[in-house]
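Dear support,

I submitted the protein below through the web form. The confirmation email said the job was done, but the results page showed an empty box. After a refresh the structure appeared. I'm attaching both so you can tell me whether what I see now is the final result or a partial one.
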Amino acid sequence: MPRTRTLTQLIADVRERADIENSTHISDTEITRYVNQGIAQLHAMIVDQNEDEFAVEVTKSVASGDASMFIVGTGGDTPPASVYKVLAVDRIATDGTSCPVRRFTLQERALLDSAGANGSPFRSMYRLRGLNTVLFSPPIDAATSIRVTYIAASADLKNPGDYYDGRDGWEEWVTLDAAIRCLIKEESDTSDLVRERAMVEQRITKQMATRDQAEPHRMRDVAPWIVEKW
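What the results page shows now:
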């Protein structure tokens, strides 16, 4: 079973580490905000170490006719509304074969838009726009499916029973970070907890670097941008 801690348990852990179990100077609402800030910060650090850690996929059908946008988080799927990072976009043909969709630069946008307007069969490219929109240029003009592999933004804990999966005790970093914020508000010394948080962070970083031992890491191929045809 996963190692999880509910919001109620995390708040109690924070109060214990900050030695404010009976204090009313800092409310549970404030500690909840500190906990969520710490979870978001740890989420970003983990992603920096391993982008596959929180990766999810969503696939949607695109009907025949122009399709210029793909909204992650609508339709039958229920991922979080905000996309933190896009890892890959693939176009899946009706026969099941797939091919990657490349990301265009802003400088290439005009060329792609003109190509689409002139009816040229240039391959559509994408760019992430806003919180959860994948923009295509030229618009996709045939029935197909689009698969987006992405990392969702960190979701806040709101209800007492909402839980955080600390994997191998990684929630300790969140607890220490929130406790430090509490002590800062009380204008108390944070040096001991800061040192302990640094030790926990070092352990997490080391564990993340060696988490997948099956295959060595590979560098991806880099090639000049080329306008391709279907």
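Response: this is the final, complete result; the empty box was a page-load delay. The chain has five helices and nine strands.
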